[in-house]
Amino acid sequence: MEIQHKLKDTEGLFYITQGDHHVAEMRYSMTSPSIMDIYHTEVSEDLQGKHIGRQLVEAGVNFARKHHYKIHPSCSFAQNVFEMVKEFDDVLA
After folding, report:
1. What ranges do the domains of the chain cover?
2. Euclidean distance between CA atoms 73 and 66, whole angstroms
3. In angstroms, rounded to a whole number, what is the distance separating the alpha carbons of residues 26 and 28?
4. What tens digit of pLDDT does each residue of 10-59 get?
5. Could you give the CA distance from residue 82 to residue 84 in angstroms, rounded to a whole number?
6. Which of 25, 30, 35, 89 has CA atoms 20 to 30 A from the CA of 7?
7. Domain 4-75 class?
């Protein structure tokens, strides 16, 4: 499964598709020129428990690092990932 990324204006999306629909996604907004607000993460029921949500958050972290952004995780799932994975602290806003 390949994680894809879309960014239009200030709205971004990391997602995985199967067929023609999204089976996992993480949405974010650029709330300032250097702050990503992760506000929604969702994984289809059949993929839950396979760390797909964490992989989406990690893709966002890697994107933030590449562009020197910080992340504000307002989504409860993303907040939990940041609490568990201290290696992501460098991008925490």
Report:
1. 4-75
2. 18
3. 7
4. 999 999 999 889 999 999 999 999 999 999 999 999 999 999 999 999 99
5. 5
6. 89
7. alpha beta
